[in-house]
Design brief:
The chain has about 200 residues and is an alpha+beta fold. The protein has five helices and twelve strands. The radius of gyration is 17 Å and the shape is globular. Belongs to the Gfa family. It holds the Pfam family GFA. Keywords: Lyase, Metal-binding, Zinc.
Length: about 200
């Protein structure tokens, strides 16, 4: 894997110049999980480690399995990820800790079209632009592909089982069929129609 060899990591203000100017910007977000820098004791046993492509951003997970995992087929995810769908695993914010806090991260709120830290927001490495997660108001959606164990053959089976999806969402906007027998929702899960593998309403 390529390693980050650029200039020293930018400070939060350098990465996001306008963050400190708004109403304490989401109540001083750098002081709370997952951006607050924690001691090993505060993090607890590390179940997974993740990194961006260049290695500038690293993080740890203290939960073995997500609350839920989904494939999202919405048009927004297709465009933002340059892929047919997004694979997202939902975690509590307190399950995640960035080892360098907010340094080296950049943000984009697609709902408000701003790079200022505003929830909900998409979180990236500021250097290589690897997508790290989507942060909502209550939880974060991590991308399992960035977890280091995904490259370890011995742990790959456990990794696949841990992050196996529970359902598909926005399957009505799919660009390909996935005949895996998993529940498929036309929009949000539990709030839209269930579809079959071919996208027909059940």
């Amino acid at each position: 894997m390529a390693q980050y060899r650029g200039s020293p990591l930018p400070g939060v203000g350098a990465t996001n110049p306008s963050q400190t100017k708004s109403k304490s910007n989401e109540d001083n977000w750098t002081k709370r999980p997952p951006y607050s820098i924690c001691s090993p004791e505060e993090v607890g046993p590390v179940k997974w480690r993740g990194t961006c492509q260049c290695g500038q951003v690293t993080y740890q997970l203290s939960r073995d399995r997500p609350l839920k995992a989904k494939f999202c087929h919405c048009r927004g995810c297709q465009v933002m990820h340059g892929a047919p769908f997004q694979w997202a695993a939902i975690f509590h914010k307190s399950d995640l800790a960035f080892t360098r806090g907010a340094e080296g991260l950049s943000f984009y709120s697609s709902s408000q079209a701003t790079r200022k830290y505003t929830l909900p927001t998409k979180v990236y490495c500021s250097f290589c632009r690897t997508p790290i997660m989507d942060e909502g108001r209550n939880v974060c959606l991590l991308f399992p592909q960035a977890l280091e164990s995904a490259d370890d053959d011995e742990n790959r089976t456990h990794w696949r089982e841990a992050f196996e999806i529970d359902c598909h969402i926005f399957y009505g906007q799919r660009v390909l069929e996935i005949p895996d027998g998993k529940p498929k929702w036309s929009g949000l899960d539990g709030q839209s129609d269930l579809l079959d593998d071919d996208g027909q309403k059940k």
